[in-house]
Specification:
Elements (H helix, E strand, L loop, with lengths): L9 H17 L5 H7 L6 H13 L3 E2 L8 E2 L1 H11 L7 H10 L6 H16 L2 E5 L7 E10 L3 E8 L3 E8 L6 H15 L2 E2 H13 L7 H19 L4 E4 L12 H12 L1 H12 L5 E4 L11 E10 L2 E11 L4 H21 L1
Antiparallel strand pairs: 1-2, 3-8, 3-11, 4-5, 4-7, 5-6, 9-10, 10-11
Helix pairs in contact: 1-3, 1-4, 2-3, 6-12, 7-9, 8-9
């Protein structure tokens, strides 16, 4: 059952906003004297204490230690984000920089990487993005280059611009001439077809090797099967960049931080969270226990969907401590997601 939103008068709202802003800036409990000096209300510390006491009774703030100042609770942060936050518009120069970096001439993989890296750098958080699943992956061209120690570099061109490189380990030596022959055979028979259909046929061929199939054809099919199998195994459902940026928040519990890093490596919890965001209209914010991941009560997630022709392909977002500058981070995530969608739509 959703907890009803607190109702605050103007004075209480100003005090709560100032308390949370101060806490976000320096991470320290905020005392009544400090609030009396900074709220601009021209009221005494004793009156401030009464207001803070009322906020505490409503569960919006709490005292971390006896006789200490107050810090916001999850409920307080949620009220702040929903009712008191004034989102700062992104500077035009930053929008232009984002637009320039997300050039539609890049392939999908490069755009995804750039967008995630940029939100991580601009917010000093960990950037996260779900990888769009293409409706069709067409094999345009395949090439093999000889490497030392019975290794071969397989170069696959998929769809129009995406290039994937795979290093294959062979059971026997093959000359560059033989590799070129094998690639020519595969391009002649499989170029222009869906990569998953090609992979299935190659697996069938390998499992039912005919006696009349010459060695070159067998080698070509075996290598292509390895290259495409490695490609499918390498598919990612989401990408995280900038994990180490979370280390700079010294007040984070080391065990909880390690648990967050473990979550990045175990897909189920993270994908469950991100899936909840994909169909959201605009920016979605999870604070603390709202994440639904045990032990991550001191972290927040901000996401925004990226779209092509009105259809959500995935979400782009950041993960950081609950004590973050929501007003500055929300527009970075929102605008980067929109620009990513526009670039993907043109690429």
């Amino acid at each position: 059952m959703t907890q009803p939103s607190p109702i605050l008068n103007q004075r209480a709202s100003i005090v709560l906003k100032k308390l949370i802003t101060s806490y976000i800036n320096d991470g320290q409990p905020v005392g009544s004297k400090q609030l009396a000096q900074n709220t601009g209300l021209n009221i005494s510390p004793a009156t401030i204490r009464n207001v803070v006491s009322a906020l505490e009774q409503q569960g919006l703030v709490a005292a971390p230690h006896t006789s200490a100042g107050r810090i916001p609770t999850e409920l307080g942060l949620r009220f702040f984000v929903d009712s008191l936050l004034e989102v700062q518009p992104l500077e035009n120069t930053l929008v232009e920089q984002l637009s320039s970096e997300l050039n539609p001439d890049q392939d999908t993989e490069s755009l995804i990487n750039h967008a995630t890296q940029m939100v991580s750098e601009m917010t000093n958080m960990a950037g996260v993005i779900t990888i769009p699943k293409p409706s069709q992956s067409v094999l345009r061209h395949i090439e093999f280059l000889s490497l030392p120690d019975r290794r071969v570099l397989a170069i696959l061109v998929i769809n129009e611009k995406e290039v994937q490189n795979r290093v294959l380990h062979l059971d026997k030596d093959m000359s560059q001439s033989e590799l070129t022959q094998a690639a020519n055979f595969l391009n002649e028979h499989f170029a222009g077809r869906d990569i998953y259909e090609v992979r299935k046929q190659l697996l069938d061929e390998m499992n039912n090797t005919r006696s009349d199939m010459d060695m070159m054809m067998q080698s070509a099919i075996t290598m292509a099967g390895k290259a495409l199998d490695d490609s499918s195994q390498d598919d990612k459902e989401y990408l995280v960049q900038g994990k180490t940026r979370l280390m700079r928040f010294g007040n984070q519990d080391s065990q909880q931080l390690q648990q967050l890093l473990d979550v990045f490596d175990h897909k189920r919890e993270m994908l469950g969270l991100l899936d909840r965001c994909i169909q959201a209209d605009g920016v979605k914010i999870f604070i603390g226990q709202e994440l639904g991941i045990q032990g991550l009560g001191d972290f927040s997630v901000i996401t925004s969907p990226y779209e092509i022709d009105g259809e959500s392909l995935g979400v782009l977002g950041v993960i950081g401590p609950t004590r973050i500058n929501y007003d500055q981070i929300i527009p970075v995530v929102d605008i980067t997601a929109r620009l990513l969608g526009e670039a993907l739509n043109q690429s």
